Amino acid sequence: MRARPDVVVVGAGIVGLSIAYHLARRGASVTVLERSGIGAGASGVQPGGVRQQWGTRVNCLLARESMRFWADAGELLQMRLDPGFRSCGYLFLAHSGKALLRLQDNVSLQNELGIPSRIVAPLEAAELVPGLDTAGVVGGAWGDQDGYFDRPHSLVEAFGALADVQIAEVVGVGDEGVVRLAQGAELRADAVVVAAGVDTPRLLPELPIRPEARYLFLSDPIRERLLEPLIVSPERSLAAKQLADGRLLASDLGALGDPETKQAVWRANVRSAVEELLPQLVFVALPTLLAGTYDVTPDHQAILGRVRERVWVAAGFSGRGFMLAPAVGRVIAESVLGDREDPVLSVLDAGRFAEGRAVPEPQVV
Fold first, then answer.
1. Rounded to whole angstroms, how far apart are CA atoms 157 and 206?
2. 3-class secondary structure, 314
3. What dotted CATH number matches 7-69+152-209+298-352?
4. pLDDT tens digits for 214-271?
5. Is 85 within 8 Å of 70 (Cβ atoms)?
């Protein structure tokens, strides 16, 4: 392990690795400390979705920048394997006038920031998604640049291959850039960045980040392509997509509680929404339940920036760390090295909650 790197990054998920990448590109020596392995947390189970359709300016800007990075990721990360991005599109459905107005507000913001999403009528929604039953749909929001990586974990691995990742459990972070390890050793650096997802409050207990369980149902691989875009119906609590390997992914967005006792209820909710909206999928079994964890804040927005004298944080992404990681890496790297304080840091700083400046994100899935 390097005796004294310029920066220590805690966490080898996609966000921490992106920060390390952008720091190294700017000439900093960086050590990434990880308790178990690269992508061992949420980054190892995320399904690879990338979208620019958000309801707050800060997320739209971060997503737009990240999308540009992802377009050239193979070259930038020196990848031998094509991660396989598919611009399948994301369609958000509205079943009421109130929901449609919210989507219209989101699309207006997105268009203002150069994101080419648009509102679609039920007839066009049915054309975009063959088999979609729009009887109860009043409209939707469509983004044809949004999509999925077939092999998202290859991107995590590519970032990791470019980083100095050391397996060591961090048990404490001092204000002066001192990182305490489980074996009693210490590592000193000019700056420390904590990007440890749901484990971040263990090291920075002053931050209002908590875990939130999320669940996905998966089918076995299906030969036929039955669903190409990703469909999201917040009012029916459904998200559904067919992955590149043929498996159908579906989620009850309101799933809460113990999966041992609630799984049947969630499955029934998914089936009810599928029967209404995507009847061609009714006979697809969903035998596998996958569990994941979001690191969430009170406004479902990340906390970014300096929190102590030599300590920065990048956590609390509510499931969108993968989508925003390239831009977040650039923002945090510039701040740590004193190059620039991006305006995003004054919006997503840790002090916003105590000061009444929360920025609720309305388009969390």
1. 31
2. strand
3. 3.50.50.60
4. 999 999 999 999 999 999 999 999 999 999 899 999 999 999 889 999 999 999 999 9
5. yes
